[in-house]
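MODEL INPUT / OUTPUT PAIR
PAIR INDEX: 1
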Amino acid sequence: MNYSQTALDFLEKGQLDDFEKNYKLALKNDTDEYLFSLAEELYSYGFSDHSKEIYEQLLKKYPDDDTLKVNLAELAIDADDDDKALEYLSFVSPDSDEYVSSLMVSADLYQTQGLIENSEQKLLEAQLLAPEEPAIWLALAEFYFSTRQFQKAIKYYIDLIKSGVTEMSAINLVERLGVAYAQTGKFEQAVGYLEQIKTINMNSDVKFELGFTYFNLKEYQQAIDVFEEIREDEPQYSSLYPYLADAYVEQNQVDKALITVQEGLANDQYNEQLWVKASEIAKQAGQMELVGEYLTKARETAPDDISILSRLSDWYVDNGKDDENIELLKPVADQEMFDAHLSYNLAMSLSHKGDIKGATTNFQIAERELDTDTKFLKDAIFFYRENGDRDKEIELLKQYLKVDPEDFEMQSMLDEELDY
């Protein structure tokens, strides 16, 4: 038996001291073929430094061996030594048998650097040189999948499956194809593939995609069954709770939906979108105080989220909490994110509190964008009417009737003002 095999035997037994002893003996005594195989095995075990040492030793002996350069480049990428990886790859010429492999490793390197276009270019060049190579199809499929270009990924996954390959490099291609279809909104196709996956091979992410697909196909009970299974196995999987809650709502089980989002918040209290979903379910359950409580929590969790700010402000206005609304909006009224809708809300609260000047300013700001919003126009009309600005009232009445000429009540109000 050679030292390389003995070293691997000790490694598998967890006897690291004996492994290291035989590994060093292998470096000195074993044939190059044994050492190359040992390097590959050690890499699969995660012993990258040992693999690197072997490849470097072999490269000194075989400086023209491009396989060694490509392998060392892969190890350099794993070690975040991008410059060294590029150096090794630069020595592999286009006429080398390993050039296609070097292109694929280059693609990995560029992707880790966030150079997505460069990565894609290298993979497409590899495909051009070896158009029938399944490993390149898989690399392209995974590249497009990871960069959320699912429609492009689908093509390559289908090509692989048509060629008879359903699993490659420990990747379940049927699963990938089902998820890709779900992400493109093609739920009928997605469910056909996702349902083929054996339960034992389904992790929580794949189960979620199946539940998500059932939900979008309006098969709510099946969605509930899948989401509940994930919740039982992995209660910290916070993405499931909004969909499970919505599925309960669709089944007219609003109380169950509210309990569901509350369970989700117990597991993930820093998820602002979960707080927002909780507020929506609480509103459907008629628990209006809870709505405000949950939106306040969402605002605390994501203070820069304009949509949450707007939701909370709406709740304050709808529930007559003008002091709270003014306190919420005034500190941010001069910020870029402050939009016409928020100016409208602030105008309403300031009006209710008797700040006519402040309300007028904010009605004027809001009008620039909301001059076709009949609800805004009606509130503004009554504001100006109540505060004696007849000219502005008439101007907005005319504008309102351009938008809704069939509103006879507002037409009557305009006629009354013009006849005055």
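PAIR INDEX: 2
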Amino acid sequence: MLAEKIKTLLSCVVAALSVSACSTPCGSPGALCAPIETVTSPPPRVTAPPERKPPPPPEESAQVETFAVAMPGTVPEGQDAAAVPGQTVRIGLMLPLRSEALGRAADAVRAGFMAAWERDRAGFEVTVVETGDAAGEILSTYQSTLAQQDIIVGPLARSAVTALAASPAVTKPTIALNHPEDRDGTALPPQMLSIGLSIEDEARQVAEWAAREHPGANVMILSGSAAWQDRIAKAFAAHASQVGMATKTLELTALNGYLSDGEMVALRARLAEQPVDLLFAALDADQARQLRVALSAPPLGDIPVYGTSSLNSGRVSLYQGAELDGVKLLDLPWQIQRDSPTVASYPQPAPRDEERLTADMERLYALGIDAFRVAREIALRPGQPIALDGVTGQLSIDFGNGPARMKRVEPTAIYRNGVPVPVTAPLTTP
């Protein structure tokens, strides 16, 4: 026993000369004393093990729903695109707002378009794309806009519409705001629809109206020398012959917009010698008023007079005499049916300055309203016929089934108490 105790004591003395790490006191049962490093060795570099992050939870699959914009031919027949939840149709409104010549007209269209969008904006996003009036710039802008938009509304200038119609760029629904320069000789791409206001279309509709009321009539067409007046006169003459009326045209001289007194005297004499059944006035409102004054004496004052919307100067005119009473014309519902539910549902345009809006600017504002409504209908009911009670007329549209077609029927009106009113309206006194 003594020998074992001495042996153990010697072991502890030897261990004391070294640095030891023990989990239990030396000499205790089960002690695991063992030297780690001598005091002359440098301390070990202890590196903490990298913190192990807990494994991420299983990642859920992302739920992404993509709704293709319903364009002609992409929605099964009979399915309303509006029934697809979450759909947003992107419309690019491309207008020559930077153009010195067309900027004011473009602004009127923009204002009407945005007013209609504000009323029915759900599911539609509108981006206004500004351009100048150069055809080349408009073409390049159109091509760059296609990638971001689903429907393009524009351009506005006839030359730009002509250039775009002749290019291969039209691959998405495009609603042109004017007609090409050679309308009869220019075939529009299948994805292009023109909804521009047309004085030629008005003249043809007036010819049909006059032929219904005066079958086989002998008509004298009175025109000024302006280019637009020549276009109206020629369109009426060509269609009048197709509906059984005989025509002859007399171009009147206008100095600063006023007809020559001498020519008015000569016209009276000619009509007295060569009576006609009716007159078609390819004139403006002031010239038509002069004509009526010159022909006021019976029997010339009894000759029916027809015309287009050019005979209505709108609310900008502060002169409302009885000289034009009885004159028949066409114009947009926006101008002559202001109390109709459709027209009354949209705000009236506000002028940009102190001047009152001209009738032409108001008509362009109305065109902007119908442009959005047509784009909306094309998106919601692709490939289906569209019948729209528009503020520019009754619109019948076929889009997405071959060449696009649109017909606009404008309401007929008659001057009463100095104001054009729908022909069906009862006679009232001021």
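PAIR 2 NOTE: The longest strand covers residues 89-95.
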